[in-house]
Amino acid sequence: MKQFLSMFAAAALVALPMSTPAQAASLIGDTVTCTQTNSLSTFSCSAPSATVGAGQEFGVGAGQSAFSLDFDATSLTISNVSGGIITLGQTIIALNNISNAFTSTSFLNSTISGFDASDVSLSNGLLTLDFRGTSWQASSTASIALATAAAVPEPATWATMLLGFGLIGGIMRRRRSHPVKHQLAIA
Fold first, then answer.
1. Cα–Cα dist 95/136, whole Å
2. Domains in the chain: how many in total?
3. Of the residues 5, 37, 88, 95, which has the fewest C-beta atoms closer than 10 A?
């Protein structure tokens, strides 16, 4: 039993530095899709999907981009890139993170007239931005904090789990090779 405890203690000391708390999932490297959901709008996304982390992921406009959608590790920044005033009547954009689903949003700020927290919705991982009835100055922006669910446990979690299975397997093997003998004492 002493040998088992010392083996377990040594394994725990080895696993301890590998077991770090989970970090918030980062959007960098995720693939996000962009679609215009209102058929009455003439605006569309510049690309159907993009990988987060390479700068501006999407431009939205009719031919040339009127505004941009730029993700970073934990948020989305929406900016007027037209250089002038924009008025939108029918534009609704849907964003879907196909790598790790969006799990929550928090409206941070907006200088876009008519665009506020009520225009941002999240349902089943689909982020919808309703720009109907908005007016944009040349420098208008909005920011939204995003959280995602990591699809795969971190490597430290896997290492700790595998180490635990190895210890259990070793204990079971050791018990099988040394059967316990029972003796009855008769008085």
1. 21
2. 2
3. 5
Is 72 inside a domain boundary? yes
**Residue 106's beta-bridge partner residues?**
145
Q: Indicate the helix (H) or strand (E) that contains 148.
A: strand 141-148
- Answering whether pTM is above 0.85, one says no
Shared domain check, 119 and 53: yes
Report the C-alpha gap between 75 and 14 in whole angstroms: 36
Domain with 160 in it: 2-22+154-177
Give the tens place of pLDDT for each residue, 158-167: 788 888 888 8
> Do the domain assignments include residue 42?
yes
> What would the pLDDT profile of 17-30 be if each residue is shown by its tens digit?
554 444 456 888 89
DSSP letter string, 15-81: HGGG--PPPPPP-TT-EEEEEE--TT---EESSSEEETTSS--EEEEESEEEEEEEE-SSEEEEEE-
Tell me how far CA of residue 92 lies from CA of 120, 130, 142, in angstroms: 10, 5, 15
